[in-house]
Design brief:
Number of strands: 3
Strand content: 5-15%
Strand order of the largest sheet: 1-3-2
Keywords: Plasmid
Structural class: mainly alpha
Oligomer: single chain
Length: about 130
């Protein structure tokens, strides 16, 4: 797996040069940055866009060590993503499924992921085992 920073260079250049605007995003730029500010939220979005489908909350939950991280995931991260219509959540099966709106963020999320430090790759590799 691994992210090829060179393949994302064009997108990063587009953002930096201003040829990609906030209107290219399917959600408000401030809302997008609020989601990106939280590491758990970013990781959930990265996983959903990489897999291109449903992920079960328990899979993600297993990655986080502390009970406070797990509580935040259950009671803050997922509900917030649902509120912004980025994911659908089935409480019975605990399945998180990206919406078409989330799918529209794939390019922007790939760009942000390329700027991350190493732990994101460890997380994604662990989740894809």
């Amino acid at each position: 797996m691994g992210t090829d920073n060179k393949s994302n260079a064009g997108t990063v250049d587009a953002i930096v040069s201003g040829s990609m605007s906030s209107t290219d995003l399917p959600i408000d730029l401030d809302d997008f940055f609020q989601h990106l500010a939280n590491e758990q939220t970013r990781y959930v979005l990265y996983l959903l866009t990489e897999r291109g489908g449903t992920v079960h909350l328990e899979e993600i939950n297993d990655y986080f060590d502390s009970s406070s991280d797990k509580l935040m995931l259950h009671h803050s991260v997922v509900p917030r993503l649902v509120d912004f219509h980025l994911v659908d959540y089935d409480q019975e099966t605990k399945a998180i499924t990206p919406t078409p709106l989330c799918d529209d963020l794939t390019s922007a999320l790939e760009t942000v992921k390329a700027l991350e430090k190493e732990p994101v790759n460890e997380f994604l590799e662990q989740m894809n085992r």
